[in-house]
Design brief:
The complex is a heterodimer of chains A (446) and B (287). With 446 residues, chain A is of the alpha/beta class. In chain A, 46% of the residues lie in helices and 13% in strands. The chains are: A alpha/beta (446), B mainly alpha (287).
């Protein structure tokens, strides 16, 4: 009896093991005849009748929009003709999408976007979607344009800005003005330190992405402002050392490092810079323990959530010019981008869903929920308190607008750059060694 | 009859064999193949021979990470055994509340190292951590330094947290070893005139050798593949100062160097294999 039982159990386990090896059933039968891997729309176009019973996957790494997108998806699913959209959120989306591409399980629609995937033909060309582009602010369309091909592979529905958030009360009490040059900036910090010894004039937190952003907005920002967006992008794409000069002792990278170390030595930045977190920074700002910090609009909702009364105290300033021939800069970049997989078997359904998501009503809700201005001309959203919007608009108008560096080497991420700043602030490198090490890491990343 | 029995045994072992082949043999062979390519995780891989392996030994960051991993593993192994043995000796003696003390010492071992790392991070944050506020209340605000912001001290913090968490596990093995030593042996040594220290070094330690062997080897193996405690406490920083080989592999893999990262994983496999082989050899000698 025992033997029979053992034999049956083993047989069951074997059957169970092999059951997992079967091929996945095709859920969306009407699309199964479409050849995978082709970029041709005509091959994949299905009539509206054929989009019945389509399961569309929407992949995102934006935790702050999950609930809102879920509610928009629920509305879309209720009115769509058999198309069912399902959202998948992953905290580590930029890495997980790579695994999905590699395993041939790319989602139909995604918010993750990398230049290297464009080069590998992973995204659908959206250049002919005039119904979207005609509504978009022209500069945002430019930001969505791939430099190599001149085509658009993603649509960005919002804009974001980054600069210095400062406490207007502290600035007003000392009669300080927004700094245009690094000397003015440093003297502002010194004045704050002298008047308020318990306040950190500039709060920097040690998370790699944040320190990487300092490089992005200051030395990279200098290159982008000096040479213009396109020439700077080309220089980065081609690793043109005559323009970038990362390792030059008189270049932007070394000057940035010298300035940062000087501020650290003068105690003008917080002492726990390497271990402080972004939450610590928001706490310090809200409680008046720091006068200013660098960040993007994405942190605005956290500040106002902690203390809605901060709305009237928040000032926003551009990054001051830290090079002799530099100018103040402020990041005005694309945000909330959407792409469709080139291998998607549900291209029409994906476009239909995005058109629904992009309608003015949904985009107003989205911009107000995210706290980020819409990139659509026909969307009038109250994305932030009026006083904040006014300050941001003034900063944007008063400085050179720069975008994000999407053209950096694939093997050298923004976080990697931030780790070099950690080493600089930990005293591992002198500014000259830092600039040299950065250049070597940048070159090795190509 | 004998061959029928053997066939039946082979049949029964099939499910385990299949699972082993799918989850160990296949990935290992696939990994060896990938380590010989320039695969970036996306495009078509090309065979490049041993280039990834030679590149590894020319990479200063990789060599630094080997050193970091070895320092962490050896320091952790030594301290885990010393602390675990002291705990075991204490728990082997009679005192009130022994049961509760044992639970308290063992408890951290059942919590995820990632969670434990974050707990210690918020305890040790200079100027704003819980221990800082406790020290401030005692009038010692400078007691908690910026330990996670410097290489020398951040490595000590990592080893301390690892030892604090897993010393209870080491203690359990030593305790089992201590309780299996016949009391007659100790009594006989004492009748022969041996003092407590002599008894400990001449009787207890030799009798504990199997437990010491198991603990040392398992601690080294576990510490060589350390990942989570470092990620939660220092993220391998400042810079790359406390980056372990496991973290390096992960970062290279997601940094479009999948073939290279697989080669590094093979090297880590060999590094871990060394103590395993030593352990197997010692065990065979003993038997």
């Amino acid at each position: 009896m025992k033997k029979i039982l053992a034999t049956l159990l083993v047989a069951c386990m074997l059957v169970g093991s092999f059951a997992g090896c079967g091929s996945k059933g095709d859920i969306s039968a009407p699309d199964s005849a479409v050849p995978s891997g082709s970029n041709s729309d005509t091959q994949k176009n299905t009539s509206s009748n054929e989009t019945k019973n389509v399961n569309l996957t929407f992949f995102t790494g934006k935790v702050e929009t999950v609930d809102l997108i879920d509610s928009i998806i629920a509305d879309y699913n209720a009115q769509s003709n058999g198309v069912k959209v399902e959202q998948e959120y992953q905290a580590d989306a930029s890495n997980i999408i790579k695994i999905k591409f590699a395993s041939g399980e790319a989602p139909d629609v995604m918010t993750t976007y990398e230049n290297e995937y464009v080069d590998q033909g992973k995204y659908l060309d959206l250049s002919d979607m005039n119904e979207w582009w005609d509504r978009l602010i022209p500069s945002m369309k430019d930001s969505c344009t791939d430099l190599n091909s001149g085509k658009q592979y993603r649509v960005c529905t919002n804009m974001t800005m980054a600069g210095f958030f400062y406490n207007k009360e502290i600035f007003d009490s000392l009669g300080l003005k927004v700094a245009k040059t690094w000397d003015e900036f440093e003297s502002n910090l010194e004045a704050i330190k002298a008047a308020y010894p318990d306040v950190d004039p500039w709060f920097i937190f040690g998370e790699a992405w944040h320190l990487g952003h300092l490089i992005e907005f200051l030395p990279h920002g200098y290159i982008k402002a000096k040479y213009g967006a396109i020439a700077a992008k080309e220089a980065m794409l081609n690793n043109d050392s005559s323009i970038l000069k990362w390792g030059d002792p008189n270049g932007a990278m070394c000057t940035f490092a010298k300035d940062l170390v000087e501020l650290q030595q003068k105690n003008l930045i917080n002492a726990d810079v390497l271990t402080a977190t972004s939450d610590n920074c928001i706490d310090a700002f809200v409680t008046g323990k720091c006068a200013m910090f660098s960040n993007g609009m994405w942190c605005l909702s956290s500040i106002l959530e902690k203390d809605p009364g901060m709305a009237d105290k928040i000032g926003f300033a551009p990054y001051p010019a830290f090079m002799d021939d530099g100018v103040p800069v402020v990041l005005v970049a694309e945000d909330s981008g959407y792409s469709i997989s080139a291998d998607s078997a549900n291209i029409d359904a994906a476009k239909d869903f995005l058109s629904y998501l992009f309608n003015a009503e949904n985009q107003k809700k989205y911009a107000e929920s995210l706290g980020s201005p819409s990139a659509f001309k026909d969307v009038d959203a109250n994305w932030a308190p009026e006083s904040v919007v006014k300050g941001v608009n003034e900063a944007v108008e008063s400085a050179t607008n720069i975008g994000f560096t999407n053209e950096k080497p694939a093997g050298f991420s923004g976080d990697d750059a931030g780790r070099y700043v950690q080493d600089l602030l930990a005293g591992t490198y002198t500014p000259e060694q830092f600039a040299k090490a950065y250049e070597e890491a940048w070159n090795a990343g190509f | 009859m004998k061959s029928k029995k053997r066939s039946y045994a082979q049949f029964l072992s099939l499910p385990a064999l299949i699972i082993y082949a799918i989850f160990f043999v296949y990935p290992l062979l696939k990994g060896i193949g990938t380590s010989l390519t320039d695969w970036d995780g996306m495009s078509t891989p090309h065979f490049i021979g041993l280039d990834n392996f030679t590149a590894f030994f020319k990479d200063a960051r990789a060599i630094h990470d080997i050193k970091t991993t070895l320092i962490f593993a050896l320091a952790s192994a030594v301290l885990l055994n010393v602390v675990g043995l002291i705990y075991a000796l204490l728990m082997n003696s009679d005192f009130r509340g022994k049961g509760i003390a044992r639970v308290i010492i063992y408890l951290p071992a059942i919590i995820s190292p990632l969670i434990m790392g974050y707990i210690w991070y918020f305890l040790l944050q200079p100027g704003r951590g819980y221990l800082f506020y406790a020290a401030k209340q005692l009038g010692l605000p400078d007691l908690i330094g910026n330990w996670m912001g410097k290489y020398s001290s951040s490595m000590k913090v990592l080893v301390f947290v690892n030892v604090w968490q897993f010393a209870g596990m080491t203690m359990i093995i030593y305790l089992a070893g201590l309780q299996s030593i016949p009391s007659e042996l100790i009594e006989a040594a004492k009748i022969d005139g041996a003092g407590n220290i002599q008894c400990f070094f001449k009787v207890t330690i030799p009798m504990l050798m199997p437990a010491i062997r198991i603990n040392v080897i398992t601690n080294i193996i576990g510490s060589l593949s350390v990942f989570d405690v470092i990620m939660s406490l220092t993220e391998g920083g400042p810079g790359y100062a406390t980056e372990s080989l496991s973290i390096y592999i992960m970062r290279m893999c997601y940094g479009s160097r999948t073939g290279y990262s697989t080669a590094v994983a093979m090297i880590l496999f060999i590094i871990i294999l060394i103590p395993v082989l030593i352990s197997m050899r010692l065990t065979r000698q003993k038997s």
